[in-house]
Amino acid sequence: VTKDGTMPVVYSLKNVDNKPAPLITLSGTIYSVSISRNGKYMIYAAEREKKHAIYIMDIKKKKESKIIGD
Asked: Whole-angstrom Cα distance, residue 10 to residue 20?
């Protein structure tokens, strides 16, 4: 995870030349990111508008769901 301007960006190394490629851009402050073994889901903790939560995202669909939080 890096910041591109003010938005956190998650990168993938799954390409032929093994160079980082942007996978998805997230909003808020991201504290931790884990990707499932099959590469389909990403789970992360985030702070948005002074509220903390844990999210899961379907990477292919780019659909985010809150698991728990404010």
From this structure: 9
Say if residues 44 and 31 touch (Cβ distance below 8 Å). yes
Residue 42 host element (H or E): strand 41-48
pTM of the model: 0.76
Alpha carbons within 13 angstroms on the beta-carbon side of residue 23 total: 20
Residue 23 vs residues 8, 45, 50, 53: alpha-carbon distances, Å = 11, 17, 25, 21
pLDDT tens-digit readout, 8-64: 787 777 767 778 878 788 888 888 889 899 989 999 999 999 999 999 999 999 999
Separation of alpha carbons 3 and 51, rounded Å:
20
